[in-house]
Amino acid sequence: MNKLIVTGGAGFIGSNFVHYLLKTTQAQVIVVDKLTYAGSLHSLEPVEAHSRYQFVQADIADAQAMQALFKEHQPTGIINFAAESHVDRSIEGPEAFLTTNVVGVFTLLETTRHYLADKDAAFNKAFRFLQVSTDEVYGSLGTEGFFTETTAYAPNSPYAATKASADHLVRAYIHTYGLPAVVTNCSNNYGPYQFPEILIPLMILNALEGKSLPIYGDGGNIRDWLYVEDHCAAIWLVMNKGRIGEHYNIGGHNEKTNLDVVDTLCDILDELRPVVENDALKKLNVKRYSDLKTYVKDRPGHDRRYAIDADKIDKELGWRPAFTFEEGIRETVKWYLENVDWTRKVQEGNYTRQRLGLVKDE
Length: 362
What we know:
Elements (H helix, E strand, L loop, with lengths): L2 E5 L4 H13 L3 E6 L19 E5 L5 H11 L3 E4 L6 H6 L2 H23 L3 H6 L1 E7 L23 H20 L3 E6 L1 E3 L8 H10 L4 E4 L5 E6 H14 L5 E4 L4 E3 H15 L6 H4 L10 E4 L14 H7 L7 H14 L1 H8 L15
Parallel strand pairs: 1-2, 1-4, 2-3, 4-5, 5-6, 6-10, 7-9, 8-12
Antiparallel strand pairs: 9-11
Helix pairs in contact: 1-8, 2-4, 4-6, 7-9, 9-12
């Protein structure tokens, strides 16, 4: 794995993975990103001068651009993070999700298939195509049970449906063409460089600015939370040791309700940036960040619970998360407190933290 294409490498998980690779391996990393609103070169500034890093701005749905990319760089593997990923945006405008998440993955698969046709058996045996997917393809759980790698797909949002479609395409290319590919399905990620439309960074930034903390419905929706650095380590392990044709669930073993997450964030902020030291909150007559909580209309079709069974990757590859939720969430809050310039830059001109994804009553 000495020359890797990382698509979507300017996004949240992708940029963290690029940092991880350059820090822990000797791989050459070619980052490919379309640079939509959620992909930013600001997330790659710490590595932009690195000798083993190169950036290419391109759309994974552009077949000509992908063919040229493979021809020029001759990769020994590809990890696809590129995706439209915010459920609320998929409700409001699903077409972009179909283009990137389905057509884009199809284009990458076709490009890889034709690229490998000209290589020898040893090269093909070592090559890997890793599709980074989500637990949302499985649908919603009740109060008990876990998603396993054999759980039937039952996506409930346009976002989840497009990711499920991509996973099925990868499976088809493995079985039809013998493509050396694997799929990972992860639980909710959190950590540095996450665009602030997602729950955790949204709540941190709103709290610091004295804005309301909007909680969907009753706040009881449950997610399994995975620190992004743990996810990066798992992906790299699967890339190197995972079995071709397999799915690997990657979970954090941290089930929390949305309300639990918000309360935890408020408690940490009370400690690290007390209200009495926050000029934005002094004039609001609030004593704690939790006073900013407000309950809003729920997301249409909001899945109630996700929970990952990660026994397979543990037993086969020896991976377990290194961070507890308490450790990871504290590191996350500290990062956002220390990187206010990044949050300003990535939002500037294209995002005001407005509510998206509400379906109008007929």
